[in-house]
C-alpha cells in the first residue's frame, strides 16, 4: 500500500503540473448568502421481514418486552415497521477573500406510523425500556467550514462517504459523524481527503455518540486518509486508510475502468479490496481480515449484465460498524447480507433495465442473485448463504411532484443451519420507500 500510495501521488503531481486552474473555487466565490442552499428531503419507509425458521421478534423477560434475537423464544415470526422523516439541510456559500468562511446545518425528525413491540426491530426507530418503538425522534447539528483555493476544511457534525468511514442512510435518518474533514482538489483529477472523527451517532440513537462496537462502548476516535485520481476519462483509482482507536487499522484500494465499445455498448470493471488488522485493545475482538471483490458489467442500450466474485480470508470475517454502517464498499454487499463471512467465497449475477429507452424515463428494474459458500463456522461445518433481490424504482420527471421517487425492494435470504447459528436466519425482506427532495433555496 505504501508503494502504491506514493507512486499514485507522484503520477498525479506529474500529470497536474500544467493543469492548475487559472482560478480556484475560492476565487470564484460569490459570497456567503449568494451561494447558499436549503433542501428538504421527505422520506416514507415501510419495512417487513418475514422470518422463515420460527425466528421472530420480541420476547418477554420479567414481564417486560425486549428484542432478544434468540431463536425459539419469540412472540412473532416477523418484524414490521413504517415511518416518515424529514431532513432539512442548509449549506452556505463561502465568504469572499483568500480564506472563505461558511456554515452548514441540518435538522431532522421522524415519526412512527406503525410498529409495535411485538413486531418492531427493523432499525427504523429506537426502542424504550419496555421494548416499544419511540413514537418520534429528532436530531440537529451543524459545522463550520473554511476554504482556501480548492481545499475545504470542515469541522462539526457531518455526513461522510469515505470507503473507510461512511455514515449510513438506509433507515429514517442518517448516521452523523462529529469531527474534521479536509477535502483538497488542488490538482486536476486528484482528490485528497484527510479526517479525524471523535463521535458517531447511529440512525436511531439521537445522541452525539450512539454507535456501539461489538462488546465495546463505541467510537473513541478514527483517523482517515485517502486519495482518488482520474488517470483518464475511463480509468479512476484510489486508496484509503483508517486507524480506529483500540479497534483496528484498515486499508482500502479501488480501481474502476470502463471500456467503450460503441455509442450503445461498454464494459466496466470494478475492483475493491480491504485489509483489516486488529489494533490496541482490539475491542471488537479478532478482526484480522482481507477481502476483495471484482465485478464486470456489460451495458448494451437499456440493458446491463453484471457478474461478480468476492473472497474473504483471515482470522474472522470483514468487520465494520463502529466506523459507520456503510463502510463496506464491496460488490456483494446487498440488501440483507454483505457476504463477508470468515473464508467466504461468493458469486453474483445481476441484470438492470432502464426503461427510458422504451419511452418510460425514470422507470428502472433490477434483479440479482448472490451465492456464498466455504464459510468457516463455530461448528466446523461449512456455512452457506444465498440471496435474491428484486427492485423497481420510478422517479417522476416533471410536474409539481418532479423528482419524487417510489421504490420497491424485495429480498429472499436463506442460509444453512451452520451459518444460521452463527450469523443470520432465513427471511423475506420487503421494503417500500418514497422520497421527495425539495430545493427551497
Description:
The protein starts with a helix and ends with a strand. The strands form 3 sheets. The chain has an 18-stranded antiparallel β-barrel. Strands 2-3 form a two-stranded antiparallel sheet. It has a two-stranded antiparallel sheet with strand order 8-9. It has 441 residues and is mainly beta. The model is unreliable at 1-21 and 58-74 (pLDDT under 50). The radius of gyration is 23 Å and the shape is globular. The longest helix has 15 residues, at 2-16. It has a domain at 1-148: Porin, CATH 2.40.160. The chain is built from 2 helices and 22 strands. It has helices at 2-16, 417-422, and strands at residues 37-51, 59-61, 64-66, 78-91, 99-114, 136-148, 151-158, 161-162, 165-166, 176-184, 190-201, 222-230, 235-244, 248-262, 265-278, 289-300, 303-314, 345-354, 363-375, 383-395, 405-415, 427-439. Residues 57-76 are annotated as: Disordered. Residues 1-23 form the signal peptide.
Amino acid at each position: 500500500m505504501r508503494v502504491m500510495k506514493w507512486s499514485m501521488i507522484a503520477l498525479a503531481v506529474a500529470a497536474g503540473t500544467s493543469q492548475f486552474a487559472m482560478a480556484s473555487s475560492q476565487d470564484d466565490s460569490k459570497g456567503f448568502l449568494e451561494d447558499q442552499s436549503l433542501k428538504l428531503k421527505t422520506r416514507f419507509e415501510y419495512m417487513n421481514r418475514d422470518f422463515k425458521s420460527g425466528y421472530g421478534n420480541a420476547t418477554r423477560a420479567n414481564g417486560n418486552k425486549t428484542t432478544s434475537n434468540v431463536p425459539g423464544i419469540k412472540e412473532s415470526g416477523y418484524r414490521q415497521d413504517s415511518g416518515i422523516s424529514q431532513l432539512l439541510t442548509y449549506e452556505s456559500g463561502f465568504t469572499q477573500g483568500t480564506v472563505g468562511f461558511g456554515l452548514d446545518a441540518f435538522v431532522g425528525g421522524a415519526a412512527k406510523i406503525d410498529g409495535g413491540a411485538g413486531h418492531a426491530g427493523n432499525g427504523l426507530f429506537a426502542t424504550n425500556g419496555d421494548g416499544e418503538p419511540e413514537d418520534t425522534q429528532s436530531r440537529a447539528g451543524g459545522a463550520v467550514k473554511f476554504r482556501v483555493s480548492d481545499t475545504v476544511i470542515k469541522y462539526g457534525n457531518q455526513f461522510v462517504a469515505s470507503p473507510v468511514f461512511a455514515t449510513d442512510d438506509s433507515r429514517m435518518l442518517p448516521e452523523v459523524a462529529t469531527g474534521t474533514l479536509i477535502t483538497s482538489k488542488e490538482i486536476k483529477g486528484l482528490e485528497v481527503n484527510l479526517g479525524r472523527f471523535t463521535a458517531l451517532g447511529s440512525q436511531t440513537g439521537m445522541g452525539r455518540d450512539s454507535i456501539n462496537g461489538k462488546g465495546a462502548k463505541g467510537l473513541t476516535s478514527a483517523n482517515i486518509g485517502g486519495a482518488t485520481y482520474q488517470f483518464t476519462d475511463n480509468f479512476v483509482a484510489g486508496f484509503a486508510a483508517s486507524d480506529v482507536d483500540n479497534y483496528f487499522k484498515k486499508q482500502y484500494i479501488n480501481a474502476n475502468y470502463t471500456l467503450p465499445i460503441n455509442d450503445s455498448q461498454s464494459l466496466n470493471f470494478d475492483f475493491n479490496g480491504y485489509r483489516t488488522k486488529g489494533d490496541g485493545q482490539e475491542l471488537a475482538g479478532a478482526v484480522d481480515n482481507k477481502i476483495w471483490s471484482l465485478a464486470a458489467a456489460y451495458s448494451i442500450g437499456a440493458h446491463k449484465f453484471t457478474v461478480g466474485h468476492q473472497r474473504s480470508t483471515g482470522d474472522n470475517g470483514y468487520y465494520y460498524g463502529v466506523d459507520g454502517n456503510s463502510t463496506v464498499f464491496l460488490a456483494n454487499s446487498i440488501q440483507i447480507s454483505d457476504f463477508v463471512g470468515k473464508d467466504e467465497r461468493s458469486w453474483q449475477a445481476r441484470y438492470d433495465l432502464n426503461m427510458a429507452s422504451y419511452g418510460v424515463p425514470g422507470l428502472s428494474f433490477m434483479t440479482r442473485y448472490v451465492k456464498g459458500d466455504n464459510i468457516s463456522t463455530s461448528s466446523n461445518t461449512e456455512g452457506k448463504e444465498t440471496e435474491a433481490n428484486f427492485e423497481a424504482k420510478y422517479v417522476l420527471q416533471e410536474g409539481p411532484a418532479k423528482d419524487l421517487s417510489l421504490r420497491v425492494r424485495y429480498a429472499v435470504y436463506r442460509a444453512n443451519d451452520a451459518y444460521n447459528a452463527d450469523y443470520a436466519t432465513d427471511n423475506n425482506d420487503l421494503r417500500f420507500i418514497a422520497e421527495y427532495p425539495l430545493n427551497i433555496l
